[in-house]
Automatic annotation (TrEMBL):
Its EC number(s): 3.1.3.48
Name assigned to this protein: protein-tyrosine-phosphatase
Source organism: Halomonas daqiaonensis
Family: Belongs to the low molecular weight phosphotyrosine protein phosphatase family.
PANTHER family (UniProt xref): LOW MOLECULAR WEIGHT PHOSPHOTYROSINE PROTEIN PHOSPHATASE, LOW MOLECULAR WEIGHT PROTEIN TYROSINE PHOSPHATASE
CDD domains cross-referenced by the UniProt entry: LMWPTP (cd16343)
Lineage of origin: Bacteria, Pseudomonadati, Pseudomonadota, Gammaproteobacteria, Oceanospirillales
Pfam families documented for this protein: LMWPc
Coiled-coil residue spans: none
Keyword entries, A-Z: Hydrolase, Protein phosphatase
One Gene Ontology MF term: protein tyrosine phosphatase activity
Source domain of life: Bacteria
Active site as annotated: C7 (nucleophile), R13 (nucleophile), D123 (proton donor)
InterPro entries: LMW_PTPase, Ptyr_pPase, Ptyr_pPase_sf, Tyr_phospatase_low_mol_wt
Domain Phosphotyrosine protein phosphatase I: 1-149
Length: 158
């Protein structure tokens, strides 16, 4: 299983989701079975570290984002990943606009896994520090739901 988290610039929400989900996979002994990455729709921050506020908020919860570097969604992501998870509706629309004609990889809003089928993970970039904690709360809830689905898929396989 290969999961790609997608946001606008890959410096706040999607690296946070990647870090949270990686930790959850480690805690459940599944890190060797599920590959995780993140990217952004746009090129603005390619090669840059996550926003310091995202790093600080994640560090308070024991998650280290310092090694992550932003990258942009690439055409081969539609072949390399089994699941593309968008942080908001605009990200989802951008994924669909870039989708190659032959691609069958599912793309959906990440918060569907937290029971919010139409809700977006808010972009904290232009807000205050509290927005990064809200993002973490939402991402942690969705990550637990995603892990449950992945484990259920594994149990259904012969």
């Amino acid at each position: 299983m290969r999961v790609l988290f997608v946001c606008l610039g890959n410096i706040c929400r999607s690296p946070t989701a990647e870090g949270v989900f990686r930790r959850l996979l480690d805690e459940h002994g599944l890190a060797h079975r599920v590959a995780v990455d993140s990217c952004g729709i746009g090129p603005w921050h390619v090669g840059k570290a996550p926003d310091p506020r995202a790093c600080e908020a994640a560090a308070r919860r024991g998650i280290d984002l310092s090694e992550f570097r932003a990258r942009q969604l690439a055409d081969d992501d539609f072949e390399r990943f089994d699941m593309l998870l968008a942080m908001d509706h605009d990200n989802l629309a951008a994924i669909e606009a870039r989708r190659p004609p032959h691609s069958q990889v599912p793309a959906r809003l990440f918060l569907e896994y937290a029971g919010y089928p139409d809700r977006a993970v808010p972009d904290p970039y232009y807000g205050g520090d509290q927005g990064f904690d809200e993002v973490l709360d939402l991402v942690e809830a969705a990550s637990r739901g995603l892990l449950e689905e992945i484990e259920a898929r594994r149990e259904r396989r012969p």
